[in-house]
Specification:
By secondary structure, this protein is of the alpha/beta class. Helix content is about 40%, strand content about 25%. It has nine helices and eight strands. Helix 6 links the parallel strand 5 and strand 6. The protein is globular. The chain binds S-adenosylmethionine. The site of S-adenosylmethionine has 21 residues, from helix 3 and strand 2.
Amino acid sequence: MSETNPIFRLHQGLLREGPGSDETTLRTLGETGVSGPVRMADMGCGPGAASLVALRALPEAQVTAVDLHAPYLQTLEQRAHAAGLADRLETRVADMGDAGFEEGSLDLILCESALYFLGIEEGLRRWRPLLAPGGRIAFSDAIWIVKERPEEAEIFWMEYPAMTNRAGVREKVARAGFRTVADYVQPKSDWDNYLGPLGARAEALRPDADETLRQVLEGAEQEVALFRRWGSAYAYGVFVVEPA
Ligand SMILES: C[S@@+](CC[C@H](N)C(=O)[O-])C[C@H]1O[C@@H](n2cnc3c(N)ncnc32)[C@H](O)[C@@H]1O
């Protein structure tokens, strides 16, 4: 997609493309128990916030960041250079479902708010052969956290029909032949880190937006407003899993 694509115009310059924080990534890395010269892939890395956290937290790690959208990877490379971390980073413009990793070559696969593109079960099955012995996968995904789902929120999330709750994700993990080692619900502030800059960017673009861009901006504004109204009904959860 070109950079004049209205979706990418909206998202240009954002440092996170999903609910998250450095603290959450650090907690997740802690839950995985990895240390030392870890070979890690950040699948669907976007502009690479998680990769940067991992490079800092794991000073011997080699990180390969994978995304379909090349400009995100350029942003990540620039940020890694500026932080003196680029020598342990490789970026790969590729489909994360088939990104060219050798079998058994990864100690950790991290995937923050991107696994829904492949589907949890499909993604885990595809990644399993890539794991070295003892290797783990950590991913985050949107989950329902109430029994009675508000109708407005349910309509919005129809764009992700496979969305389930925490127990439902654990079941999917088990069906894919994995065991959940740890899981937790991300704090609400992780949404502010994503929706705050997204809402501000939408507002800034609005005065000069043509009709196509306006529709994209409305989608973003709807996402922000929905979380304000119904943010107690859904959350992002992190799941650390390993082959059963
Ligand atoms: C919601 S964003 C999350 C980005 C990043 N992990 C973060 O939390 O900021 C999802 C990312 O997945 C990427 N993506 C979607 N499908 C993909 C695929 N099949 N292979 C690689 N990347 C993909 C998108 O380009 C986007 O950067």
